[in-house]
Amino acid sequence: MDVPLWAWAAVLAVIVTMLAIDLFAHRTAHVVGVKEAAVWSAVWVSLGIAFGGVIWWAYGAQAGGEYYAGYLIEKSLAVDNVFVFALIFTYFAVPREYQHRVLFYGVLGALVFRAIFIAGGAVLIENFAWILYLFGAFLVYTGWKMFTHRNDELDLASNPVLRWARKRVPSTEEYHGQKFWVKRAGTWVATPLFFVLVMVETTDIIFAVDSIPAIFAVTQDPFLVFTSNAFAILGLRAMYFLLADLIDRFIYLKAGLAAILIFVGIKMLLLDVYKMPIWLSLTVITACLTVAVVASLRATRDQVAPRPAESNEPAESSAHTSRRPAGPATGEGVDTSKGTTESDDTKAAAR
To answer: Helix H segments across 26-159?
Structure first.
């Protein structure tokens, strides 16, 4: 697909503009409620669908279908990110009014890392076509591993990146509004929010390892891979606030995502045997996700998830120093200045 340079520039301009609007709308720390999250989710999804319509109009049904398939794959896998984000925020006892700021910079970093991974993947595929089979085998393995370990729990306390950062970065155990760094006795030290951001970025890099090859399974065009990825993850923040209180009800979601990964992996492995039409890929991916979500909600329809109390009061000024809240499992905080950790009891399911 021949995409002019101005089209790339226009897409990047739209992304930057939307991020600026989002940042301006959330310039004051506040608790993002379900209604606000639903409105923003509608905005991001509408933007992604509309861009797919532009692709369909400009380059035809095949390109449009490939974009929508890539968008749907990334959007589906992004739901799994919500589980891990909820775990991270719970582990660090992040006040709800500060969570959006972390996710904003997390998505910004995700866009940069995804662009690097996509560029690298495109170069590898162009020079080593056989690597598509390696990607396919990896996706099948990842999908099977996700399915067999879908009920495993993640222990953040033993995360090597977090342990390394705590040992080497001077820090304070107190939150200072939305600040990642504060000055103490003439020295810049990291707040707990900085370590939350480190974990969010690390998580996204790990998730990109399978989501990027999965999109290459439906299209090898770098423009379609990047745009479907970008427009899907732009709405990740709103998706988190919309679904965070429902994550315990999606009991079959990981099985559905595993099925999607295995499907696209097999599709990639059969490239020289059978070229699957894009409509079939879209149908299978949609069916896997729909069945997983509907089955989960039906199985847990009698389950009432307690919703944390939300306050309409404005958050404290970022200049104000607030004592870090107690951890939900033990009632003890984390002293990041000494590298100690909270109880291992605070765990949740993750990929």
So the answer is: 34-59, 61-91, 96-127, 131-148
Which residues have C-beta within 8 Å of that of residue 4, sequence separation ≥ 6?
none
* pTM of the full structure: 0.75
Give the number of other CB atoms < 10 A from CB of residue 339: 16
pLDDT one-digit tens code per residue, 239-257:
888 887 777 788 888 888 8
Residue 182 forms beta bridges with which residues?
189
Q: Measured between alpha carbons, how far is 283 from 298 in angstroms, rounded to an integer?
A: 22
Phi-psi category of 190—alpha, beta or left, where left has phi over 0 and alpha has psi -120 to 50? Answer: beta
Q: 170 to each of 166, 268, 320, 321, 334, how far by Cα in Å?
A: 8, 46, 20, 17, 14
Q: Residues with Cβ < 8 Å from 2, sequence gap 6 or more? A: none
**Contact status, residue 251 vs residue 299, Cβ threshold 8 Å:** yes
pLDDT(291) > 70:
yes
Closest CA to 159 of 330, 350, 325, 337: 350
Q: How many helices (H) and strands (E) does the chain have?
A: 11, 4
Copy the structure tokens of residue 110: 């995700």
Handedness of CA 311, 316, 317, 319 (dihedral sign): negative
Encoded amino acid at 149, one letter: H
- Residues 269-284 have pLDDT tens digits of 887 788 888 888 888 8
pLDDT at residue 312 greater than cutoff 50: no
For 130-252, where are the alpha helices, taking DSSP H only?
A: 131-148, 160-168, 192-216, 222-233, 236-243
Write the single-letter amino acid at 154: L
